[in-house]
């Protein structure tokens, strides 16, 4: 049975032959493996490509013993953007954060993690774009991230990326997004949802300040985030909550064990 790879395979193969760095060769091989048809006639060719890829990764690891590419976490959460080359990662990073990564039509433009800060209703979320080479030092960043956004052009790419996560023991919550078709607001909302956070506002006089907390957090969790002395001297909390589907606001006096909801305004009262 003939292999009959698509034209995109030969483009990736040509880039592999002209690649200068090991990282570029690894990325090209991974793209070739992804594009190679999966049937009985392609088994030998696929095995050869995978063997070549494994050798390059071993050689790369020997040249960079102990190398790590850790990114210090900032903001309320860290989200990694992962995808194959030219999937729109740099484009999305720029739109979400205002960062200025290099964006080009040729593949493998991103060779190191790029970082920016996304604002979501006053809450800062760190967005990290990972290179498409999926090197171990980059996967270690994804392993500690609070969530992963996979940039997929189709279901096949999504499944391949999920397999990469699984093989690297990455268990962070995952969403799949299409940077070229989905609206920016929709992607921001998806990122916020997968993080499992709510926004609660602290009230001091007339000033409101947003705070991110895990879903099902209590007034006690809220107070601890500000200062532990609020627990020791706690009397009660004044809570303002907009009733769903209306403009009405409930004004409540609650205790430490009261469960907060997204959008609550909390004013702590002490002894």
Structural features, described:
This protein is α/β, with parallel strands linked by helices and 271 residues long. The chain has 3 domains: 7-63, no CATH class; 77-195, 3-Layer(aba) Sandwich (Rossmann fold); 197-270, Beta-grasp domain (Ubiquitin-like (UB roll)), CATH 3.10.20. Helix content is 38%, strand content 25%. The chain is built from 9 helices and 10 strands. The strands form 2 sheets. It has a 5-stranded mixed beta sheet with strand order 2-3-1-4-5, with helices on both faces. β2 (114-120) and β3 (123-129) form a beta hairpin. The longest helix is centred in the first third of the chain and has 21 residues, at 43-63. The chain is elongated.
Helix-strand blueprint:
Layout: H1 7-18, H2 22-35, H3 43-63, E1 77-83, H4 89-97, E2 114-120, E3 123-129, H5 136-144, E4 147-151, H6 155-167, E5 174-177, H7 184-195, E6 197-204, E7 207-214, H8 219-226, H9 229-232, E8 234-242, E9 249-254, E10 265-270
Parallel strand pairs: 1-3, 1-4, 4-5, 6-10
Antiparallel strand pairs: 2-3, 6-7, 8-9, 8-10
Helix pairs in contact: 1-2, 2-3
